[in-house]
Amino acid sequence: MRVRMIGWLIATTFSSAACHTMKPVTLDALGGIRPARVWVTRADQSVVLVEGPQLLNNRLVGFVNGRYQVMPAADVSQLRMRAPARGRTAALVTASALGVAAMAYLLSGGGGYSDPCSLASSECDPNAP
After folding, report:
1. Which residues, 6 or more positions from 33, have their beta carbon under 8 angstroms from its beta carbon?
2. Which residue, 17, 55, 57, 74, is most buried by CB atoms nearer than 10 A?
3. Is residue 119 part of a domain?
4. pTM for this model (two decimals)
5. Distances from the Cα of 88 to the Cαs of 7, 18, 25, 93, 118, in angstroms?
6. With 60 as the cut, is the pLDDT of residue 41 above it?
7. Which residue has the higher pLDDT, 56 or 105?
8. pLDDT tens column, 49-89
């Protein structure tokens, strides 16, 4: 029983990542979406996290490691942002509800527990010699 509980907790922990996904976004769409942060893949294949990104005069501006930086659009090969994954989140909620229901069933006596003292045993009889 304990192994199952540990397995369930590990599965729940790893599945919490199901609530978000990384979504590609274009420079043009960046102004309308206004995400708090984006992951930028540069032309040299390095990836940086840009906080507070904005598009100004065909350049991406924002804070990288706490410093304000300006990147020309030609230097940006890909932009990705974190977005909610609605389908995965619904599946996670459904699986969690089923897991809670299964645990409640097991804890409520669905396991067929029988009291050993209900049997006519001398171990439970206080008047037995």
Report:
1. 25, 81
2. 55
3. no
4. 0.57
5. 20, 5, 20, 9, 48
6. yes
7. 56
8. 999 999 988 899 999 999 999 999 889 999 999 887 777 77
**Domain containing residue 79:** 2-106
Which one, of 87, 29, 89, 103, lies nearest residue 60 by Cα? 29
> In this structure, is residue 29 part of a structural domain?
yes
**Do residues 83 and 21 make contact, with C-beta atoms less than 8 angstroms apart?**
yes
The DSSP secondary-structure symbol of 18 reads G
Q: What is the DSSP string of 36-58?
A: SEEEEEETTS-EEEEEEEEEETT
DSSP, residue by residue, 89-125: HHHHHHHHHHHHHHHHHIIIIIT----GGGS--TTT-
- CATH number for the domain spanning 82: value is 2.30.30
The Cα–Cα gap between 39 and 64 comes to 10
Number of H helices, E strands in the chain: 3, 6
